[in-house]
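Progress report, Aim 2. The chain analyzed during this reporting quarter is listed below.
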Amino acid sequence: MLLDGAFTVLLLISGASAVSVPSPKNVVVSCQNLKVTVSWEYSKLQPQTTFRVQVKGSTVNEEETTTDHQYDLSHFVWASNERYMGFNYVSVTAIQGGHRSDPAPSKTFSFSAHKTADIICKLNFPPVDLKVEDSGAKVTFRNPLHYYSELKQADNSASFKFTVSPGGEGECLRSQEICEREIEFPEGAEQCVNLTGSLIVDNQLVSFSETHNICPSIPPWVYVTVGIILLFVLVVVLTVVSIMIYKTRPRKRKTPIQLENLPNRGKQYYTVTPPHISTVLIRLTVNEPGTEEEAERLTSEGQKTNEDYSSDGSVKTECTSVDEEEEKGEESMSSYDRPQNLQVDMGDAEMVTGYTGC
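Predicted C-alpha cells for the chain:
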C-alpha cells in the first residue's frame, strides 16, 4: 500500500510538471505623453499562447486578453481623474489550453507627482510662441486644460502653473484658454526661453516635460519675402545659362533650297557662275564670186564698204574682244578660239560656208 501511494504521488508530480506554462518576462510599462502601453517578452518556441492582462489601480481593476506581446492601456488610464492620478500596475499571465502560468507584474506607475510610484508619467508642454518687440517680449501657449481633451473631466478648480526661464512664474485658470507671460531679457542675453509646468487637479500635481530653447517665431511675411528673392535669383540664373548655351552652341550649315515646283523635285540645286565667253569671228566665203549687185546688196544690208571685202570677194571682219589684252597673254587657246566650220544662210536660198576663230 505504501508503494502504491508513493507511485501515485510521483505520477501527479510528473503530470503537473509536464503541463507547466512559463511566465512572461520583462513586463514594461511605457508612458509617451497621453499614450500608455505595456509590453512583455515570451519564448517563440512555445505553442499558440494567449495572455491575460490585468490592470490594477487604486480604485478599480480591469482585465483583457490578447495574443500580442503588448497592450494599450490609454483607455483605462484616462477614463477618470482617479485612474491617471492613481497608483497603478499591470500583471500578465500566459495561457495555453486550460493551463496558466504564474502572473508576471510590472512596475507601478502614475501621472501624479505626489504618488510614490516607480514610474511618474509626464505630459508634453503645448506649443509655445515667443514674440520679441521693441516694447518687450511675451510668451503665449494654449492652456493644457483646453489643449488636451483627456483632461476635460477636471473640475473648475483645476489650474496650470508654469515657470518661464528667464522670466518668472505664471498661472493659468481653467476659464482661460490662452496662457501668457510678459518677460524681459537681460542685456546681451540670448532671446530664448525654457518652460516647465504642473497641472493642479484635486490637490494632485500632473507634471509636464520641460521645453528647451523656445526662440522668437519668424513672421509669415519674412518667409514670403525670402521666397520671392529666391525665385528672382532662380530666374536670373536660368536666363544667364540659356544665353551662354545659345552663344556657345555650334552653328548649323544651311541646307540647299529644295525647289519643289521643278520637274526634278527633291533634287538639290546650286547657283552656277556663267563661263567666260570669248568674241567669235565669222568669215564668210561666197560660193559664187559676188557680182557688183551682190556686193552693193551686202554693203547696203551690212553697211559695208569696199574696204570690208577681200580680194577674193569675201567679206572681211575683224576680231574684237573685251578681254583682248588678257587673251594676248595666254599661251593656249580655248575651244572657242579654234576655227569652227558652219553654214550661213545668205538669203534667196544661198548658203555659204563660214568658220569662226581669230
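Residues 220-248 form the longest helix (29 residues). Residues 1-17, 298-311, 313-327 have pLDDT under 50 and may be disordered. These observations will guide the mutagenesis work planned for the next reporting period.
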